[in-house]
Specification:
Shape: globular
Largest sheet: 3 strands, antiparallel
Number of helices: 5
Number of strands: 3
Strand content: 5-15%
Distance between the termini: 26 Å
Radius of gyration: 16 Å
Low-confidence stretches: 111-115, 119-127, 130-140
Mean pLDDT: 74
Length: about 140
Protein backbone atom coordinates (compact mmCIF):
# COMPACT_ATOMS: atom_id res chain seq x y z
CA UNK A 1 0.00 0.00 0.00
CA UNK A 2 2.89 2.37 0.67
CA UNK A 3 4.20 1.83 -2.87
CA UNK A 4 0.69 2.29 -4.29
CA UNK A 5 0.28 5.50 -2.29
CA UNK A 6 3.59 6.81 -3.58
CA UNK A 7 2.96 5.80 -7.19
CA UNK A 8 -0.73 6.74 -7.37
CA UNK A 9 -0.81 9.92 -5.32
CA UNK A 10 2.75 11.10 -5.82
CA UNK A 11 3.49 11.21 -2.08
CA UNK A 12 7.20 11.13 -1.39
CA UNK A 13 8.39 7.96 0.35
CA UNK A 14 9.77 9.91 3.33
CA UNK A 15 6.25 11.26 3.95
CA UNK A 16 4.60 7.82 4.14
CA UNK A 17 4.29 5.95 7.42
CA UNK A 18 3.24 2.31 7.48
CA UNK A 19 1.94 0.18 10.31
CA UNK A 20 2.31 -3.62 10.12
CA UNK A 21 1.16 -5.05 13.49
CA UNK A 22 -2.60 -4.49 13.32
CA UNK A 23 -4.99 -7.39 12.79
CA UNK A 24 -7.89 -5.19 11.68
CA UNK A 25 -8.73 -1.67 10.58
CA UNK A 26 -9.61 -0.45 14.08
CA UNK A 27 -6.18 -1.50 15.35
CA UNK A 28 -4.51 -0.09 12.24
CA UNK A 29 -5.88 3.35 13.10
CA UNK A 30 -5.11 2.89 16.80
CA UNK A 31 -1.49 1.87 16.16
CA UNK A 32 -0.93 4.53 13.49
CA UNK A 33 -2.05 7.55 15.51
CA UNK A 34 1.25 7.92 17.39
CA UNK A 35 2.99 8.17 14.00
CA UNK A 36 0.78 11.02 12.80
CA UNK A 37 0.01 13.02 15.95
CA UNK A 38 2.17 15.96 14.87
CA UNK A 39 1.03 16.02 11.24
CA UNK A 40 -0.64 19.09 9.80
CA UNK A 41 -2.56 16.96 7.29
CA UNK A 42 -3.50 13.28 7.22
CA UNK A 43 -4.58 11.19 4.22
CA UNK A 44 -5.79 7.61 4.39
CA UNK A 45 -5.12 5.66 1.22
CA UNK A 46 -6.93 2.42 0.48
CA UNK A 47 -9.86 1.24 -1.60
CA UNK A 48 -12.77 3.71 -1.28
CA UNK A 49 -14.94 1.75 1.17
CA UNK A 50 -12.02 0.70 3.37
CA UNK A 51 -10.69 4.27 3.43
CA UNK A 52 -14.14 5.51 4.46
CA UNK A 53 -14.21 2.97 7.30
CA UNK A 54 -10.72 4.00 8.42
CA UNK A 55 -11.76 7.66 8.41
CA UNK A 56 -14.81 6.80 10.55
CA UNK A 57 -12.59 4.91 12.99
CA UNK A 58 -10.16 7.81 13.21
CA UNK A 59 -13.09 10.11 13.98
CA UNK A 60 -14.23 7.76 16.77
CA UNK A 61 -10.77 7.23 18.24
CA UNK A 62 -9.15 10.62 17.75
CA UNK A 63 -11.48 13.44 16.67
CA UNK A 64 -8.57 15.88 16.98
CA UNK A 65 -6.64 14.00 14.29
CA UNK A 66 -9.75 13.42 12.18
CA UNK A 67 -10.08 17.20 11.92
CA UNK A 68 -6.76 17.13 9.99
CA UNK A 69 -7.97 14.65 7.37
CA UNK A 70 -7.59 15.80 3.81
CA UNK A 71 -9.14 13.99 0.86
CA UNK A 72 -7.21 11.32 -0.93
CA UNK A 73 -8.19 10.55 -4.52
CA UNK A 74 -9.42 7.11 -3.49
CA UNK A 75 -12.63 7.18 -5.51
CA UNK A 76 -12.46 7.29 -9.26
CA UNK A 77 -15.66 6.62 -11.18
CA UNK A 78 -15.57 3.36 -13.10
CA UNK A 79 -12.27 2.17 -11.67
CA UNK A 80 -12.36 -1.47 -10.52
CA UNK A 81 -16.14 -1.51 -10.89
CA UNK A 82 -16.21 -5.30 -10.43
CA UNK A 83 -14.72 -4.90 -6.95
CA UNK A 84 -16.73 -1.91 -5.74
CA UNK A 85 -20.11 -3.65 -5.58
CA UNK A 86 -19.00 -6.57 -3.35
CA UNK A 87 -16.90 -4.20 -1.23
CA UNK A 88 -19.88 -1.89 -0.76
CA UNK A 89 -22.06 -4.87 0.16
CA UNK A 90 -19.46 -6.00 2.73
CA UNK A 91 -19.28 -2.52 4.28
CA UNK A 92 -23.07 -2.17 4.41
CA UNK A 93 -23.34 -5.60 6.06
CA UNK A 94 -20.71 -4.57 8.62
CA UNK A 95 -22.64 -1.39 9.39
CA UNK A 96 -25.85 -3.41 9.79
CA UNK A 97 -24.09 -5.86 12.13
CA UNK A 98 -22.72 -3.02 14.26
CA UNK A 99 -26.13 -1.38 14.48
CA UNK A 100 -27.78 -4.72 15.27
CA UNK A 101 -25.21 -5.40 17.99
CA UNK A 102 -25.71 -1.93 19.46
CA UNK A 103 -29.47 -2.47 19.52
CA UNK A 104 -29.03 -5.86 21.20
CA UNK A 105 -26.70 -4.36 23.83
CA UNK A 106 -29.17 -1.53 24.45
CA UNK A 107 -31.87 -4.14 24.95
CA UNK A 108 -29.72 -5.94 27.53
CA UNK A 109 -28.15 -8.56 25.28
CA UNK A 110 -24.57 -7.78 26.33
CA UNK A 111 -21.58 -8.15 24.06
CA UNK A 112 -20.01 -11.32 22.77
CA UNK A 113 -16.66 -11.77 21.11
CA UNK A 114 -13.33 -10.09 21.43
CA UNK A 115 -12.32 -6.47 21.18
CA UNK A 116 -10.59 -4.82 18.31
CA UNK A 117 -13.14 -2.31 17.18
CA UNK A 118 -16.76 -1.30 17.09
CA UNK A 119 -18.00 -4.72 16.04
CA UNK A 120 -15.31 -6.87 17.59
CA UNK A 121 -13.61 -8.10 14.42
CA UNK A 122 -13.07 -6.41 11.11
CA UNK A 123 -11.60 -7.65 7.88
CA UNK A 124 -7.87 -7.07 7.68
CA UNK A 125 -7.05 -4.93 4.70
CA UNK A 126 -3.70 -3.26 4.19
CA UNK A 127 -3.62 0.49 4.40
CA UNK A 128 -1.09 3.24 4.37
CA UNK A 129 -1.40 6.57 6.06
CA UNK A 130 0.36 9.58 4.65
CA UNK A 131 1.14 12.42 6.98
CA UNK A 132 2.41 15.71 5.69
CA UNK A 133 4.61 17.50 8.17
CA UNK A 134 5.40 21.18 7.99
CA UNK A 135 8.67 22.29 9.49
CA UNK A 136 7.90 25.39 11.49
CA UNK A 137 9.65 28.49 10.28
CA UNK A 138 10.95 26.84 7.11
CA UNK A 139 8.31 28.33 4.83
CA UNK A 140 7.38 24.91 3.48
Amino acid sequence: MARWTRDTFGIRADRIRTETKAENTWQNIEFTTPLIEHADRVKIASDPMHAARARRYLLLQRPDLAARLTPAADYRFGERWWLKLPTAAHELAAIARRRGGAMARAAGGGRRGGGGGPRGRCARLPSAVSARFRVRGSGR
